[in-house]
């Protein structure tokens, strides 16, 4: 009996085009493209050429896909890539003849790497969205979608807003990837079952539909949930650390402790109110923590590139982790060959770990066993530079692994349908496993303005969508509302690292939406559209995503 493992990558960044460059504007996106997305494309190319399967389940959020497909991104990225190549060349020359001359070979290595990745970029016609689409169309990976702008769905005040996020996410996936998404990455793995709507300390309301019901309405077959929401593990938090500390012995705890469910099967979570069955894949705490943990996980190896030490000018990294307790000033020089060898070894170990976890779980779950390891894609390459090499090694090792097959989520359900029902609890994969990262004391102030905007938008939307002159203004108001709903702003504020940026972006989109809704209301009352249309057009130059957003509005209103 061969058991299954599902490797899921969640690929997301908020809309940054038109909102500056460094450090949290387009450079943020360009860094992710250079350090994560292009290396993954390069890895998938190499594995396909050698005949190694890569059945990864990869979610790309609609907002990110829109950025990758934008001509603005293409222009910004090529300038960014030229700058990185120039920095490597300048660094090589500047270091020669100095006390840091030993770093010159590393500068050459960086230059060669950037040139190689530029060749990958050009090979795929400067279109990363198309590159991933081609892998999916050839059956190399499975692509899934997400909510339009990664809105925190359980906290949105109106069901129409949830439907707009989901409808736009689905239609943008079809437009950009030419496929029908079977699965969805629910933003922040945040779930709310049917019941009274309560936001502690902020709002309380009547019974509302569960998120599974909304997913069923849009035909999704599956989503992902954290283990504690299924009573099958402890919350791992932002950095993959279990609440009780490292390590976590999953199998013993869910069979002998207070965990009532196994994390190693896919569950039917649909309520009797749902239009169809929806399955939840449950995150495996053991394999997830092995990768995520900043203390006990792979990325903490001393051989790997140190993220936090950068040489200026140029912005190149020349040092390795060395040790978690080693001061930045004492970091040792990076050795790419040793680091890549370490990543290969860790990839093989991970394949072995998946087999071990699956074999132990099979005693309880039998043929239905599936070990689910979901991660943010940007971990691989950006935060953990050697991550793509690790994934490449894991895929090669799993090809020869007899105990466990790496499969896509859809393939697992096709071969072993979800047969066990489960009432999934409210929660997320954030800190403490609850909603506090998005509804805690530092961000409760963000929700009343959003709820007011939702009410006003949906009050005007039915009339505006039937009025041709109002439609461009309504479309831009929908885009601005969706951008204001992005869960990234509350997350950034809650972590406190760049809270000012999160506050500025949130308030800016709220103000844009307010202004558009005032213009929309004025136009509907007076039939004067000149100023409103120009204002919407000006905003669209900057925030030019979701060209068919009015289709989503119509679906949310029940008109389509």
Structure report:
The chain has 560 residues and is α/β, with parallel strands linked by helices. It folds into 2 domains: 394 residues, Glycoside hydrolase 38, N terminal domain (7-stranded beta/alpha barrel, Alpha-Beta Barrel); 116 residues, Up-down Bundle (immunoglobulin/albumin-binding domain-like). Helices cover 49% and strands 9% of the residues. Helix 1 packs parallel to helix 11. The longest helix has 30 residues. The relative contact order is 0.14.
Key phrases:
6-stranded parallel beta sheet, 19 helices, 560 residues, 2 domains, 4-stranded mixed beta sheet, immunoglobulin/albumin-binding domain-like, 7-stranded beta/alpha barrel, 49% helix, alpha/beta
| Biggest sheet layout | 6 strands, parallel
Tell me what portion of residues adopts beta-strand conformation.
5-15%
Instruction: Give the CA-CA distance, first to last residue.
Output: 46 Å
What is the number of independent domains? 2
Helix content: 40-55%
What do the pLDDT scores average to?
93
**Total beta strand runs:** 12
* Outline: globular
Uncertain spans: 238-258
The tally of helices reads 19
CATH architecture of the largest domain: Alpha-Beta Barrel
- What is the CATH C-level name of the largest domain? Alpha Beta
Query: Which class do the helix and strand fractions yield?
Result: alpha/beta
Radius of gyration: 24 Å
- CATH superfamily caption of the largest domain: Glycoside hydrolase 38, N terminal domain
């Amino acid at each position: 009996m061969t058991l299954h493992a599902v490797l899921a990558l969640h690929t997301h960044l908020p809309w940054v085009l038109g909102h500056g460059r460094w450090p949290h504007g387009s450079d943020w996106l360009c860094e992710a493209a250079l350090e994560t997305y292009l290396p993954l494309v390069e890895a998938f190319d190499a594995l396909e050429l050698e005949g190694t399967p890569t059945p990864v389940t990869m979610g790309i959020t609609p907002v990110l896909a829109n950025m990758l497909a934008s001509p603005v991104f293409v222009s910004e990225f090529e300038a960014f890539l030229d700058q990185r190549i120039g920095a490597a060349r300048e660094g090589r020359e500047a270091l020669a003849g100095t006390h840091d001359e030993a770093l010159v070979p590393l500068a050459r290595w960086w230059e060669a790497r950037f040139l190689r990745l530029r060749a990958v970029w050009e090979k795929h016609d400067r279109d990363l969205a198309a590159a991933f689409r081609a892998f999916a169309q050839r059956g190399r990976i499975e692509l899934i979608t997400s909510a339009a702008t990664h809105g925190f769905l359980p906290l949105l005040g109106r069901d129409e807003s949830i439907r707009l996020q989901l409808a736009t996410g689905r239609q943008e996936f079809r437009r950009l990837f030419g496929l029908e998404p079977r699965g969805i990455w629910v933003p922040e793995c945040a779930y709310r079952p049917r019941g009274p709507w309560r936001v502690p300390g902020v709002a309380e309301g009547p019974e509302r539909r569960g998120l599974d019901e909304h997913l069923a309405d849009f035909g999704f077959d599956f989503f992902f949930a954290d283990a504690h929401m299924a009573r099958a593990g402890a919350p791992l938090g932002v950095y993959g650390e279990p609440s009780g500390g490292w390590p976590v012995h999953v199998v013993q705890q869910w069979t002998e402790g207070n965990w009532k469910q196994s994390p190693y099967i896919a569950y039917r979570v649909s309520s009797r109110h749902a239009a169809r069955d929806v399955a939840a894949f449950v995150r495996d705490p053991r394999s997830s923590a092995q990768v995520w943990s900043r203390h006990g996980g792979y990325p903490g190896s001393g051989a790997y590139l140190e993220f936090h030490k950068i040489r200026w000018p140029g912005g190149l990294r020349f040092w390795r982790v060395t040790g978690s307790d080693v001061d930045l000033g004492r970091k040792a020089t990076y050795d790419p060959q040793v680091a890549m060898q370490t990543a290969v070894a860790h990839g093989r170990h991970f394949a072995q770990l998946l087999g071990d976890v699956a074999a132990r779980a099979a005693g309880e779950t039998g043929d239905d066993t599936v070990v689910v390891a979901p991660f943010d894609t940007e971990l691989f390459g950006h935060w953990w530079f050697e991550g793509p090499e690790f994934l490449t090694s894991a895929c090669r090792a799993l090809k020869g692994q007899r105990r466990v097959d790496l499969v896509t989520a859809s393939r697992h359900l096709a071969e072993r349908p979800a047969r066990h029902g489960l009432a999934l609890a409210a929660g997320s994969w954030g800190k403490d496993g609850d909603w506090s990262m998005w509804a805690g004391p530092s961000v409760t102030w963000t929700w009343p303005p959003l709820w007011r905007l939702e009410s006003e938008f949906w009050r005007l939307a039915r009339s505006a969508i039937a009025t041709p002159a109002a439609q461009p203004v309504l479309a831009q108001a929908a885009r601005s509302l969706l951008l204001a709903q992005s869960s990234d702003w509350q997350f950034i504020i809650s972590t406190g690292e760049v809270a000012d940026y999160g506050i500025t972006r949130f308030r800016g989109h709220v103000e844009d939406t307010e202004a558009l809704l005032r213009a929309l209301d004025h136009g509907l009352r007076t039939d004067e559209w000149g100023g409103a249309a120009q204002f919407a057009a000006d905003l669209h130059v900057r925030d030019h995503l979701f060209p068919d957003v009015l289709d989503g509005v119509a679906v949310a209103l029940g008109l389509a």
